[in-house]
Amino acid sequence: MELASLSANLLLVSFVAYLIATMFFGGAVKGSNSEATYKNNRWGNIAIVITIIGFITHLGYFVLRWIASGHVPVSNMFEFTTAFGMMVVGAFILLFFIYRTPSLGLFALPLAIIIIGYASMFPRELAPLIPALQSYWLTVHVITAAIGEAILAISAVAGLVFLLKNVDLTKLSKQRFWLESVMFTLILVVGFILSASTFAAMGYEAKFTYITQSEQQAQIVYNYPPLFGMNEYESLTPDKMTPFAEMPAIVNGKTLTTLVWSVATGTVLYLLLRLVLRRPVATLFQPFAKKANSQVMDEIGYRSVLIGFPVFTLGALIFAMIWAQEAWSRFWGWDPKEVWALITWLFYAAYLHLRLSRGWEGKKSAWLAVIGFIIIMFNLIAVNLIIAGLHSYA
Q1: Which pLDDT score, from 0 to 100, does residue 392 have?
Q2: Sheet harboring 206-211: ordered strands across?
Q3: Mean pLDDT, each 10-residue run in order, the chain (394 residues)
Q4: pLDDT at position 75, please?
Q5: Residue 245 burial (CB < 10 Å; 0-12/13-18/19+)?
Q6: Per-residue pLDDT, 334
Q7: What is the rounded distance in angstroms from the CA atom of residue 96 to the CA atom of residue 48?
Q8: CA distances (Å), 98 to each of 42, 94, 95, 102, 297, in order?
Q9: DSSP letters for 186-244
Q10: For residue 109, what are the contacts with CB-CB under 8 A and spacing of at least 6?
C-alpha cells in the first residue's frame, strides 16, 4: 500500500477512535456518582486509552504524509486543519492526566472530530510546495502557531463546560442567548460538512475563468451551485447555474458561495433540532457538564491561556515575521492573515490583563476564552478562504 493511502487510513482510524472515546467519556460522566468515581472510573480509563490510540494513529498519519510528500504536511487547508485537530487532542490528553476530568474530553474530542470532518472537505492530493512555502521557517512558524492555537482551544472547551454548568438555561437571558449562539455556530460547521458531502456525492462541478488581483487569467472549479462569481468571470460550463452576483478581485466568490451554502444548511439543521427538542440546543449538552468542577474548569481555562499565549506569540507573530522576511523580503505587510493574527494576540493579551489586574474569573473569563476561540476560527476559515491575500494558497 502506498504511504499516502496508508496515512489516509490512519487518519480514518483516529477519527473513529475519537468518536468511540467520546461515547465512553459520556458514560464516564453519566455513570459517576461521586467526585472520586467522576475522576477515576472504568469508562473514563477506557476512554482515555482509546483517545491515546487515536492520537497515535493521527500522529502516524502526519508522519507518513510527511514522508510521502517530502515536506511537513501543513501547507494547505486539509493538512493544516488535520494537524490542528491532532494538536487539540494532544493538548487534551496532557491536561486530562493533570486534572482527570472526563467532561473536558466529552467536549474536546467532538471539537477535534468536527475539525477533522471540516478538513476532509478540502482537496487531499499531495502537491509540491509553492516557492513562498519552501522555507525552514514555514515549518517552525506554522507548527508553533498551531500548537498555541490548540492549547487556546482547550481554554475555550473548559470555558464552554463552565458556562453550560453555570448558566441557567431555563430562563431567558443574554447569557443563554449567547451560549445558544455558540451551539448554532458549531452546527454551522456541521452544515458545511453535510452540504459539501452532499454535492461531492452528486459530482457537481461548474468551471469558470476569472481575472486575479494581479490581472492574470485563471480557472476555477465550483463544487457547489455558484451563488457568487469570481472577478470578471466567464462560464466554461454553460449548462450549469449562473452566479447571482460578481465579486471584486479581493473576495473569493467560490469560498463565499461555500460559506452561504454552509450557513443555509446549518441553519436548517439547527431549526430542525429546535423543532424536535422544543428547547435550546444547549440544554441537550448541559447534563454532561453538571458534574464538572467549576473551579477546576476555570483553572484549566486560565492555565491554557497562560501556556498557549506565549506559544502563539512565537508561532503566529515572531516566527511568522521571520518567514515573511524570507518569503517576501519584509517582516510585516498588513496582509489580512497577519492583521487577524495580531487581533487574536491583542485579544488574549487583554484576557490576561483583565484576569490578572481586574480579577475577571468564572463566567467572564469563560466567555473571553470562548470568544477568543471564535476569533481563531474566523481567522482560519473566513480570512483564509474568503478574503484574498498572500495566504490564499491555503
Answers
A1: 54
A2: 217-222, 206-211, 234-235
A3: 84 93 90 74 91 96 90 86 94 92 91 87 76 77 92 95 91 89 87 85 88 84 89 87 86 83 92 91 87 91 95 92 84 84 94 91 93 89 65 53
A4: 81
A5: exposed
A6: 82
A7: 8
A8: 18, 7, 5, 12, 12
A9: HHHHHHHHHHHHHHHHHT--EEEEEE-TTS-EEEEEESS--SEEPTT-EES-TTSPPPS
A10: 18, 19, 21, 22, 25, 51, 89, 92
User: How do residues 76-105 score in pLDDT, each as one tens digit?
Assistant: 888 889 999 999 999 999 999 998 888 899
| Nearest by Cα to 228 from 200, 249, 199 | 249
Task: Kindly state the helix (H) or strand (E) to which residue 391 belongs, with its residue range.
Answer: none
Distance CA 89, CA 106 (A): 12
Residue 172 identity: L
The separation between CA 264 and the C-alpha centre of its own chain, rounded to angstroms, equals 19
Region for residue 102 given its phi and psi (left: phi exceeds 0; alpha: psi -120 to 50; beta: otherwise)? alpha
Which pLDDT does position 252 carry in this prediction? Answer: 79
- State how far the Cα of 246 lies from the Cα of 319, in Å rounded to an integer: 37
The count of C-alpha atoms lying within 13 angstroms of the C-alpha of 166, restricted to the half-sphere facing its C-beta, is 19
Q: State the angle between helix axes of 174-202 and 253-277 in degrees (0 to 180), rounded to the nearest 10.
A: 120
Q: What is the pLDDT of residue 132?
A: 64
Q: What is the pTM of this model?
A: 0.84
pLDDT the model gives residue 352: 95
Are 80 and 74 in contact by the 8 Å Cβ rule? The answer is: yes
Give residue 233's identity as a one-letter amino acid code.
Answer: Y
Q: What radius of gyration do the chain's Cα atoms show?
A: 21
